[in-house]
Design brief:
The protein is of the alpha+beta class. Helices cover 21% and strands 42% of the residues. The C terminus is likely disordered.
Length: 513
């Protein structure tokens, strides 16, 4: 029976430190010694023979071995093959010391999908000889790695959240340390940090612009349902027709701010409000002023509007007459002195701000002539004078007719009456036709006055007037056409009326006695 090889191995095999390992076998045939072979290749081998005693020889091979942690616990075999074909072998188990290798974070239950806030057990595993006896844990955040100083054991329990989704550890033994790879936990959480984004970043828009908005959030799994809101001053309105992650809206004065809500299977999250600075043109632009102006006077028109953004300090004005610019006029008030026919027509006001121009409706200005007004005033005054003269003439004629009537009644009563009243007859025959009728009237008036003054108490004063009718008639007959008899009659009528009034009052005083 062939002898079994003997393996000599150092007691301390440390990774990375070379160590000689020998395999030897005794034999008695020096010319044809047995062949020795290792089950490890790639190492330097040294073969030699040594004479022992009594014709016995020792065949030996020495391997310069470089220990590796991968060989720890493995079997090292040396096989001897004799010339007659017989074989024998010996095996030994390698005990190699090494620092921690293949360090890793393990989850005992194997579940890597967790909800935010779950408590998770973690274990720091490594291959080491001697075994690792010290551990350090890390929470690997997006903004850096944070050491969990309070956690030092091989196994720990952590509460997971959005900022604590990956972990790592470090294992140590007397020979060294090693960091684990990152262990990523699939932490499920509802949308956080929900916000409204504008892809181009522009928050200043014009009224009527189409603006793209995106609802962004941090969520796991990613948000898959969205609701959009238009935050008006009088309340929040849900945009039911807009449900996607990105929408396009047309902005206006009443739609300046927006918000969104993002949802996933865990929950939902609402964004803060995004405010858009909406610029819009001036609203309700109108012109105020007089639409009729006299030639040569001053024209003043004022441009008004009711709503705006940005403020009025950022506005400019321009004026137009019949569609043509009014040169040099850029203020809110248009003033033109000493206007002429060229200034009449259709005026409009244009208000310009950052959102664009806005024009007023046309305002028609007509020119009136200054002389036309004076002529109209003269015509009115003339008409009033004519009317006044006509009224005065009518009054005089009425008084004249009344006087003639009273006088004729008086004459009639004198002819047929029995009273002994004194009759006074003026001398009409001595009055020539060529004399002034006013002189004849004056003489007749004296006679009438005398009759009115001296009648008896029983006589009617109206009878006295009758005797003057002939004189009056003669005066009217013989007056020239170029003379105005009405003026003379007016003077006489006043005297007659006074005497009649006086005599009536005397009778009223006497009769009661």
């Amino acid at each position: 029976v062939p002898s079994r090889p003997a393996i000599q191995i150092p007691t301390d095999l440390t990774e990375g430190k070379r160590a000689p390992i020998s395999c030897s076998v005794e034999h008695t045939c020096p010319p044809s010694p047995p062949t020795l072979q290792w089950n490890r290749a790639g190492y330097k081998l040294t073969d030699r023979q040594q004479s022992l005693k009594d014709g016995v020889w020792k065949a030996e091979t020495v391997m310069e071995y470089l220990p590796s942690y991968r060989d720890h616990g493995a079997e090292l075999e040396c096989k001897a093959t004799y010339p007659n074909g017989l074989r024998s072998q010996r095996r030994v188990t390698l005990n190699i010391t090494f620092s921690p290798k293949n360090t890793r974070v393990l989850i005992p239950d194997g579940k890597k999908e967790r909800k935010e806030g779950d408590a998770v057990s973690l274990t720091c595993e490594s291959d080491a000889n001697p075994a690792a006896n010290a551990f350090t844990w890390y929470n690997n955040k997006r903004d850096g790695t944070v050491e969990l100083r309070e956690e030092q054991g091989r196994s720990i329990t952590v509460t997971v959240g959005r900022g604590r989704e990956t972990f790592s550890c470090t294992a140590r033994n007397p020979l060294g340390t090693e960091n684990s790879t990152l262990s990523e936990l699939q932490v499920l959480f509802s949308p956080k940090n929900t916000r409204v984004l504008i892809p181009d970043g522009k928050k200043e828009r014009k009224e009527g612009d189409a603006v793209s908005l995106t609802c962004a959030s941090d969520a796991n799994p990613a948000a898959n349902a969205f609701t959009w809101y238009n935050n008006k001053r009088d309340g929040t309105v849900e945009l039911r027709e807009e449900q996607g992650r990105s929408i396009t809206v047309t902005v206006g004065r009443g739609r300046e701010t927006f918000s969104c809500a993002a949802r996933n299977i865990i929950g939902d999250g609402k964004s803060t409000v995004l405010g858009l600075q909406v610029l819009y043109k001036a609203k309700d632009v109108i012109i105020e002023g007089k639409d009729e102006v006299k030639e040569g006077a001053a024209l003043e028109l004022e441009c008004h509007f009711s709503d705006y953004n940005p403020p009025t300090t950022q506005y400019s004005y321009s004026w137009y007459l019949n569609g043509n610019p009014v040169n040099g006029e850029t203020g809110r008030i248009l003033q033109i002195n000493n206007i002429t026919e060229s200034h009449s027509g259709n005026y409009s006001c244009n208000v310009q701000n950052g959102a664009g121009p806005s024009s007023s409706p046309g305002f028609a200005v007509t020119l009136t002539s200054a002389t036309t007004g004076e002529e109209q005033l003269t015509t009115v005054i003339s008409g009033i004078s004519i009317i006044s003269g006509s009224v005065a003439g009518a009054v005089l004629i009425i008084l004249l007719i009344l006087a003639l009537y009273l006088y004729l009644r008086y004459r009639k009563s004198q002819k047929g009456g029995a009273s002994g009243g004194r009759r006074v007859e003026p001398d009409y025959q001595n009055s020539q036709p060529t004399e002034s009728p006013y002189a004849a009237l004056q003489m007749g008036d004296t006679a009438v006055y005398d009759v009115m003054k001296n009648p008896q108490a029983t006589e009617s004063p109206y009878a006295a007037l009758q005797m003057g009718d002939t004189a009056v008639y003669d005066v009217m007959k013989n007056s020239h056409s170029t003379e105005n008899p009405y003026a003379a009659l007016q003077l006489r009528d006043a005297a007659l009326y006074h005497d009649i009034k006086l005599k009536n009052s005397e009778r009223l005083d006497i009769n009661p006695k």
